[in-house]
Inverse folding.
């Protein structure tokens, strides 16, 4: 049922909803880009993930998946969804989300900063908490990597980006993410009973988290290769090299998370109980200073775009995304964004 607003309601909305200033691009992905935006009324900053609609639904599927997950989960270590907008003039969807004002783990790696084991334990303890909650709700992430672990100035780490469907284009070319994916995903050999290898999606997340942990600690990936096949071969040959510069507890944790056999790989519960996390603080001091956002330029013209805002159910009708953004049963409100 469509919610109908009175003229007074719409006037009230118009006073309040012309609020977002688009400041700058802060990221680009395979099927979207991310902008830093500011709510001109509350002065709060958000990240806006922008998807272009298309007739083949290629971009809507990860958007729909991410929205459906984020609307169901509320956890301090998972990025929160603020709202979703559809802009018909540009045929785009805007996911308005929390913004990690100290960047991501990838930014820390790129900066060459060496984190103390205490800081590492705090960050990964929080991510384990978030993943455990996510799995408990019946979801897996499937794309844990440094750029998807966001850092906030209050010493909190949060998991972001739940929109991944397929993270590689072919088995012949590495496209970033496969370096973090569990080896069983790429194993197409049949066992003696004609079955494909054992796959546990939760253990896939553990592997990806282990690769991420290794990279944060040592500044490099644990398994290298120019193709997916080379990476999987190196994993199969057990070529995991863990330098002796870390504590025995961290050494054993990394080893347990990166066991090629998913049945022998550590579970999240076992990880959370690992001695490495026993003395870790609940929060940490971010190693990177908060980003100073650019201020909106009042001299620049602001283009107004009418947009539809999703109601709390966040249900999309993707059968004809060019002409509709929500099913007819959902509430629509007139909004505009700058």
């Amino acid at each position: 049922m469509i919610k109908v607003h009175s003229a007074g309601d719409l006037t009230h909305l118009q006073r309040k909803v012309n609020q977002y200033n688009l400041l700058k691009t802060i990221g680009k992905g395979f099927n979207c880009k991310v902008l830093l935006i500011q709510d001109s009324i509350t002065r709060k900053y958000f990240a806006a993930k922008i998807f272009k609609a298309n007739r083949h639904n290629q971009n809507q599927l990860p958007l729909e998946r991410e929205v459906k997950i984020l609307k169901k989960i509320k956890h301090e270590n998972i990025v929160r969804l603020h709202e979703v907008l559809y802009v018909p003039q540009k045929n785009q969807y805007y996911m308005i989300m929390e913004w990690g004002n100290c960047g991501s783990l990838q930014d820390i790696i790129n900066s060459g900063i060496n984190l103390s084991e205490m800081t590492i334990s705090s960050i990964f303890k929080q991510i384990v908490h978030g993943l455990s909650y996510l799995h408990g709700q019946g979801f897996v992430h499937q794309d844990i990597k440094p750029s998807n672990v966001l850092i906030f100035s209050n010493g909190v780490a949060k998991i972001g980006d739940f929109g991944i469907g397929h993270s590689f284009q072919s088995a012949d070319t590495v496209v970033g993410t496969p370096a973090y994916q569990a080896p069983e995903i790429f194993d197409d050999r049949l066992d003696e009973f004609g079955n494909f290898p054992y796959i546990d999606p939760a253990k896939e997340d553990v592997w990806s988290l282990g690769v991420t942990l290794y990279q944060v600690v040592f500044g490099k990936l644990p398994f290298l290769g120019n193709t997916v096949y080379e990476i999987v071969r190196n994993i199969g040959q057990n070529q995991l090299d863990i330098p002796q510069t870390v504590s025995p507890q961290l050494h054993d944790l990394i080893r347990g998370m990166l066991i090629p056999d998913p049945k022998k790989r550590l579970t999240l519960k076992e990880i959370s109980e690992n001695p490495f996390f026993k003395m870790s603080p609940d929060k940490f001091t971010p190693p990177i200073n908060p980003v100073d956002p650019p201020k909106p330029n009042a001299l620049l013209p602001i283009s107004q775009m009418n947009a539809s805002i999703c109601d709390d159910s966040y249900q999309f009708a993707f059968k004809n995304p060019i002409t509709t953004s929500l099913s007819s049963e959902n509430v629509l409100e007139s909004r505009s964004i700058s």
User: Anything to note?
Assistant: Residues 117-136 form the longest helix (20 residues). The radius of gyration is 22 Å.
